[in-house]
Amino acid sequence: MRTDTPAAIYRKDYTPPSHWISTVEMGFDLDPSATRVATRIVFERNHAGSDRTLTLYGDEVELVQLRMNGKALAKRAYQLEQGVLRIPSAPDDVVLEIETLIRPDRNTSLMGLYVSNGNFFTQCEAEGFRKITYFPDRPDVMAKYKVMLRADKRKYPVLLSNGNLIEQGDLGDGRHYALWEDPFKKPSYLFALVAGNLICQEEQIKLQSGRKALLQVWVEEGNLDKTQHAMASLINSIRWDEKRFGLELDLDRFMIVAVGDFNMGAMENKGLNIFNTKYVLANPRIATDVDYANIEAVVGHEYFHNWTGNRVTCRDWFQLSLKEGLTVFRDQEFSADMIGTDSGRAVKRIDDVRVLRQAQFPEDAGPMAHPVRPDSFVEISNFYTVTIYEKGAEVVRMYQTLFGRDGFRKGMDLYFERHDGQAVTCDDFRAAMADANGRDLAQFERWYDQAGTPRVSVTTRYDAGAHTYEMTLVQSGASTAGQEEKRPFLIPVSVGLLDGKGRDMPLSLGDAEEQPTTVVLELKARSQTFLFRNVMEKPVPSILRNFSAPVVLEYDYTDAELAFLMAHDSDAFNRWEAGQRLAMRRLLALTALSQSGDALQVDAALAESFSATLNDGELDPAFRETALNLPAETVVAEQMDVIDPQAIHAARRFLRQSLAKSLRPSLLNAYRDNAVNGPYSPDAASAGKRALRNLSLSYLGELDDEEIHALMQKQYDNANNMTDRMTALAALANSRAAGRAAALARFYSDFEQEPLVIDKWFSLQAMARTTDVAAVRKLMKHPAFSLKNPNRARSLIFSFCNGNPFRFHAIDGSGYEFWAEQVLALDALNPQVAARLARSLDRWRKYAPALREKMHAALKRVADSSRLSKDVKEVITKSLAGA
C-alpha cells in the first residue's frame, strides 16, 4: 500500500505575492488540437514583501516563447520545474509576454480550456487558468483583462469572454475575431471564454439606476425552447439583489452559457457564467419540479456571486467559504422569498437542513472533517465540500439570527463599503458584521476554525410555586483530526414555550420588558442556565426553532410531547422536527429488531400522528409532504455506533409498508384530492400538490398489489409533466409490476434525444432497490453511457454508490470492488470527479466488521495504484490514516 502523501499547503504560511498585476491582455487562436495563447502581463512589485522572485504556474501547457520587458528570456534567466516558472531577481516593473500551446481536445479533466461537443469552454476555478498559460494563479492577484478571440467563423460563429464586447469582425481568411474587455479587476479563476456554434435567448432590462443591461442565455441548437425559466430566474435574481441588498448589476451585459460536459453545477465567471446544462435547460416535457427549483437556485447563486465572490473575492483558497457560504445563504433566502408564503419558506428551510444533516454532519464526523476555514489542503478541489458551502451558509445565517435582517443588511453594507474590489478574509466579513452592529464577535471566529458538529444538551426544571422555568444548555464537541479539545462556540439557540393548549407563551427572560414568543438564547459557555419568569404552567419547550444553529440538539422529549409539538408548534421547522424524531425512534427500534432476528412490529402512535398530518387540510400540501417523509437511510445510519445498512433498509421499508397499510384510504384520498388539472406550471402551490400526491403514490407503492400497479401505470401513461412521469416510473421500477420493464424501455425510447432525461433514467435505475452491481455493470454497457461525461457518470455510478446503500453495501463486498474499479477508471480521465466518488467509503470504520474489512480492502486497492492523482490520493490517504 502506498503511504506517501503529497505535500500539504497551510493557511499559516500565507505570504502576499511578490508582484501585483495591473493589466492582462490575451490573444487566443482557437484550434481544438493546437490552440495558441499569447499573453501580455503588466506586473509591479509588491513592496510590502521581500521576495523578488516572480513565480508563475503552468499545468500541461507547452511554453513556446517568453519575453520580459521586450527581450526574449534565455533559458538560464528563468527556472521551469514541475509546472512552476520562476524568474529570480525580477525588476520592480515587469511586462511579461508569454506564448503557450495547449491541446483542448485532449483535456478530459474539463479544467482550463477544453472542447465539449465541438465547442470551446473554460473552467478556471480553482486552479484551471494555469492549464491555459503560465500565471500567478492565486485569488489575491487581481487584474483587468482584455481578450482577443480568433477562430474559424463557420465552426465557431459565437466568441464570448468576460465583460463587454468592444469590437468584432472578419479576418478575411474564413476566420473572425471578437475583442472583450472586463472593466473590473478579477482574479484569474474568474476568467472565461466560450467559442462555438450556439444560439441565445436575450432580453434587455432596466436596472434600478435607470441603466439598461442585455441578458443572454446561450445554448446549443435545439435547446432554445428550454431557456425561458433560466432567463426568468436571472431577472428575478437581479431584482431581488437590488431590493434585498441594494446591489445592482455592474456590467452592460450578463451571459449564461450551458454546456453538457462540466465538473460542477455552474461557475460565476465575471459576466460570463458557464453552467452545467442540468441547471439551465427546462421545459414541462423534460424537467421536474425539483429541476425548476434547482435552476432558480443555481442561477441565483451564480448571479449573486457577482458581488459576493467577484467584486469582493477571497484572499486565498482557505477563505473559500467567504464567498461560497455567504452566497449559498443568499440563494437560500432568494428561493424562500420567491415562494413567498410562510409555509413555503419553512419547507425551503427544512430542505436545506435535510441536506446539511444527510451530507455535512457525516462529513464533520469522518476523516475528511475540516473547519469552515480549513487549516491545510493538498488539493484545493477536494475542499469544494458541503462544509464549505452548506455549513458555511449556516454560519452566515447565524449572523442574521443574532442581529436580525436589518442588522445583517447593515453588516453587508459595511462589508462592501470597506472591501469592494479587494481580496479579503473571513475575518474581514466577521469584523464588518461586528462593527456594524456594535458587537464583539471574537468568540464567533471558532465557527470558522473548529471542525465537527457541536452538540447542545438541554435540561429543564419547572417551579410551579415560583412560576419559573429553568433551561440549562450544555455544549460539547467530539475531537477531530488535529483538534482534540473544542473551545466553546457562540451558539444562538432560538426557543419558544407552549402551554397546554399548544399556544405560544409570552416570554419574560432576565430584565427584558418585551415579551416575545420566541427568544434567541446566546450560549457562550460550556454550560449556561436561563431563567424564564411568569410561566404560569409547565410548558412544552420548542428548542432550536428554525434550526437556529448547525448543532445536534439533545433533549429527552417524551413521545407524547413530540406528538404535541407535531400537532401544535407554531414554528414549522420544529413541527416537522418533532415528527422526524418520532419516526427516528421507531426506525432505530426496528433496526435493532432486524439485527437480532426478531419479528418487526411497530405501535400505532406514529401512524396516528402521520394520519393527523396527512388529513389536516389547513396545512399546506408541500409541508404535509415534507412532514410525512421518513428520515433517509443515511440519516438513520448516523444515529448508530455501528452501521448495518441491511438492517436499516429492512426497518425503513417495514415502517413504510406499515404506514401504507394503515393509511391506505387516506393516502388514496390525498392522491385523488391533490391532482393538478390543466397545463403544467412549476409554481410553488402546484408543485406542493404534486409533491403530496406523488408521496402518497410512493407510499402506496410499498403495498405492491395489482390495484396500485394499475394506478402507477395510469399515472405514467397520462402524465403531462416529467414530475408525475418520473414518480410513476420510479414506483414501477421498485415494484413487481408486470409493466415495469416495458415502462423503462418506453421511457428511454421517448427521451433518448434528451441527455438530461436519460441521466434521470440511469439514476432512477441505479437507486432502485432491485438494482445490484451486476445490473449497474450491464447499464454501463448501454450505448448511451459514457464515463467521460460527468453528468452521466454521476447519474449511474454515483447514484448507485451514494444513493442505494442497501445494494451498494452488499454483504459479499461486490459494491466495494465496483467502487474501486470506477475510482481508478475515472481518475485516469477526470481526477476531480474521481475524488468525489472516492469519498463514498471515507466512513468505512463505522460499519459492521464484515463490511468494514471489505471496504478496507477496496481502499487499499485504490491506494496501491502507482498512478493516482493528488486529488484521489488525498482522499484515500486521509480515509486510511491510522489503519
UniProtKB/TrEMBL annotation:
Keywords: Aminopeptidase, Hydrolase, Metal-binding, Metalloprotease, Protease, Zinc. Residues 231-447 form the Peptidase M1 membrane alanine aminopeptidase domain. Coiled coil: none annotated. It holds the Pfam family Peptidase_M1_N. CDD domains: M1_APN. Belongs to the peptidase M1 family. This is Aminopeptidase N.
